[in-house]
């Protein structure tokens, strides 16, 4: 059954074609349609076996896992998951990329910041940013664009993802994806920020040593050949 994954292939074909247009200009209608398509992705369409949601019966060694679903010149599709409630993907960015996050199991809190130009910045490793707030999102019905969290290259691009339940997993579509060199930078907050719209500085830091993603077995799609 996994050798085909017809529904998923059709969905990813459509997403890839739409993502190619985002390389040239931002289009709100295109973004909405990509969000709708991403919202139809599920564990069933992926035909993926996630680790057991209970930490006591969790089969992997690492606290965070990832599975590559598909990648081409316009996009990447990856599944991530966390063992424990409170598990995090630390604050980071994907400069020049659009991000689409669809919860597959459990629920997430996404804390995000936007880049702000600051000509008075004194330290090279400090980034001026505006706090955009926090979103909590869980599994929702298919075909609903609003169920997919959207992060554009500027607005909300710096983000932290926290699991609100054990065994939380999500699908992450990035456009353009990892096939292009992506300068992913990690950050730490320099002060406590709770009010959306508040300006602050974030400090660029090396990747946290304890941030390790264990590969989850999955038969990655090599190409999206036409489905007859």
Give your account of this protein's structure.
GO terms for molecular function: metal ion binding; oxidoreductase activity, acting on single donors with incorporation of molecular oxygen, incorporation of two atoms of oxygen. Pfam families: PCO_ADO (PF07847). Keywords: Iron, Metal-binding, Oxidoreductase. It comes from Bursaphelenchus xylophilus. With 228 residues, the chain is an alpha+beta fold. Helix content is 14%, strand content 35%. It has three helices and twelve strands, in the order αααββββββββββββ. It is globular, with a radius of gyration of 18 Å. The two termini are 16 Å apart. The model has no long low-confidence stretch (mean pLDDT 89).
Protein topology:
Blueprint: H1 6-22, H2 28-39, H3 43-46, E1 64-71, E2 76-82, E3 88-92, E4 98-105, E5 107-115, E6 126-138, E7 149-151, E8 158-163, E9 169-175, E10 186-189, E11 199-205, E12 214-215
Parallel strand pairs: 1-12
Antiparallel strand pairs: 1-2, 2-9, 3-8, 4-7, 4-9, 5-6, 5-8, 6-11, 10-11
Helix pairs in contact: 1-2
